[in-house]
Write a structure and sequence with these properties.
The chain has helices spanning 2-17, 100-108; strands at 23-24, 26-29, 39-43, 48-55, 58-73, 76-91, 120-130, 146-154, 157-169, 173-183, 205-216. It is mainly beta.
């Protein structure tokens, strides 16, 4: 038993050492979505959610497309939501000969996202606050302006997450960037089950980067 525990700790440490850098998203239970009153800004085709997963031997990154509408009131982001197209999952670091399609298919399978049952994820804003930090705090996204809280739904699980973001709004356009890590197991993503030793080789931390652009309607 002690030997198995030590092995598990070693594998976890090995996977964690390659975990991507990002702000640790604070995760709580689902909350009520914020009001969507105000001017609508619609996400354009350049809006992406970039993902990075890691294991002891390295990491893989890729993207999802995002579509949705955000609410702007008095030049402030106040609410809104967007869908994450899980079927659009694309790997960026492998070539076809290196197993690109195989990895994409594996991630879309029931081992992870299970796109046949759950073709999309969603993120619905619950609150947006001005970001304040002390002089020693650094965020993964440079010059964070706000803290966003929202309900993230992946597969059949919904959790509220909170993370710093940099938001810029003018008369016709909004851009938002964030860089944070979530624990995939909180959304039921466990390779071959939550206690399977093969799952220990994959870091629980998954990095998500939001690069959102939206235009006034």
């Amino acid at each position: 038993m002690i030997r198995l525990s030590l092995m598990a700790a070693t594998l976890f440490a090995m996977a964690s050492c390659n975990a991507p850098k990002g702000d640790a998203a604070q995760t709580t239970e689902k909350q009520e979505a914020a009001s969507t009153e105000g001017v609508s800004y619609v996400l354009d085709s350049t809006s992406l959610v970039t993902w990075t997963g890691s294991k002891p031997t390295g990491q893989h990154s890729g993207t999802f497309h995002a579509k949705g509408t955000l609410a702007i009131n008095n030049n402030n982001l106040t609410g809104g939501s967007f869908d994450i197209d899980i079927n659009s999952l694309k790997n960026l670091d492998l070539k076809e000969d290196d197993g690109k399609s195989k990895l994409e298919g594996h991630l879309k399978s029931a081992d992870f996202f299970d796109v046949e049952k759950f073709p999309k994820g969603t993120f619905a804003i619950t609150s947006v606050e001005t970001y304040t930090a002390d002089s020693t705090e650094k965020t993964a996204v440079a010059n964070a302006t706000h803290r966003i809280k929202g309900n993230l739904t992946l597969k059949d699980s919904t959790k509220n997450i909170s993370f710093p973001a940099r938001i810029s709004i003018d008369a016709n356009r909004l851009t938002a960037e964030a860089n944070f890590n979530i624990d995939r197991t909180q959304w039921g993503m466990n390779y071959k089950g939550p206690n399977n030793p093969q799952d220990w080789f994959i870091s629980k931390e998954v990095n998500l980067k939001l690069n959102i652009s939206a235009n006034k309607q």
